[in-house]
Design brief:
This protein is an alpha+beta fold. The chain has helices at 36-45, 104-113, 117-120, and strands at 14-19, 25-30, 62-66, 69-70, 87-94. It has one domain (14-101): Ubiquitin-like (UB roll), CATH 3.10.20. A hairpin with a 2-residue loop joins strand 3 and strand 4 (69-70). It starts with 13 loop residues before the first strand and ends with a helix.
Length: 124
């Protein structure tokens, strides 16, 4: 998990380019089995030198955003189907709580749980 810029990316690692709200960036290598919580812990523990003037929030509120979605702590880079040997951009933000899911997948799940009279009653 060494940091690096403009270096060759090992074929078994994913280079994450993390962007802060301020626009500052930092790159670090991770494996496909690393989870979002592992990544945020690593960044917290080895806060980049070029971010020293940025306020370092508590580790438990650091969150990753990938393609507009907050990543929950146990999701791995492999589960996101990121390609090893490539650079992927994610945002790193301080946020106490994750937003509630509000997408089509959640709506489908909710509709699947609906029960109506046709599903539970028998009229004789």
């Amino acid at each position: 998990m060494a940091s690096g810029k403009s270096k060759a990316i090992p074929s078994d690692k994913i280079n994450l380019r993390l962007i802060l709200v301020s626009g500052k960036t930092h790159e670090a290598l991770f494996s496909t089995t690393d989870s979002a919580s592992h990544i945020t812990q690593h960044i917290y523990d080895s806060w980049p030198e070029d971010w020293v003037d940025e306020e370092r929030p508590e580790c438990n509120i650091l969150r990753l955003i990938y393609q507009g979605r907050f990543l929950h702590g146990n999701v791995t880079l492999g589960a996101l189907q990121l390609t090893p040997g490539k650079t992927t951009v994610m945002h790193l933000v301080a946020r106490e709580n994750l937003p509630e899911p509000n997408n089509r997948d959640q709506l489908k799940k909710d509709k699947g749980r609906e029960t109506g009279c046709a599903n539970c009653c028998t009229i004789v």
